[in-house]
């Protein structure tokens, strides 16, 4: 899941980003409204965690612009006000959810995850390919019944390949869906992650390289 945090309180923005990354999400951060607005249009995020009172460009304007564009990106609006009128106003602008500060981080994570599921085509919780099983909700994977010890990035790459249901996923698409904006687009990190994932998956090989195109799961993927 790709998330953009737009928050001018840097300590809070960085804390939110660190916490979401620990949950396996790819997170970018903008510290003012203008930067956040630009980033939201350059990259298709699943969720934007958007502070309402921002310098440069107000959060209300960013939210309205995103809604008008027709994007599938979901907006979780943050505000220092917990009044009912402010919540209603934020939702009327097109925000998908609303959270008042201070908030419990577990609640923030749960709301971001819920919005992320709404931002992408509905995928079943469990994906299988041959003897490989990946449970998206529990974030665990196993092959031939043996648990796989995967890093967050390895799990997310495998998840994206399985969700493609045999289709080819390019390195660029994997970078966009699994890594954040700080990743060098010319890096070999995708290839390295694919190689380590292959080793952990074992034999017979499941991840196939399609020269000049990307990667795919070489056996039929079944949803359950």
UniProtKB/TrEMBL annotation:
Alphabetized InterPro entries for the sequence: CheY-like_superfamily, OmpR/PhoB-type_DNA-bd, Sig_transdc_resp-reg_receiver, WalR-like, WH-like_DNA-bd_sf
Annotated source species: Actinoplanes campanulatus
Keyword presence, Phosphoprotein: yes
Protein name, per record: DNA-binding response OmpR family regulator
Sorted UniProt keywords: DNA-binding, Phosphoprotein
Entry's Gene Ontology cellular component terms: cytosol; protein-DNA complex
SMART domains: REC (SM00448), Trans_reg_C (SM00862)
Domain of life: Bacteria
Residues with PTM 4-aspartylphosphate: 51
A single GO BP: regulation of DNA-templated transcription
Domain Response regulatory intervals: 2-116
DNA-binding segment(s): 124-219
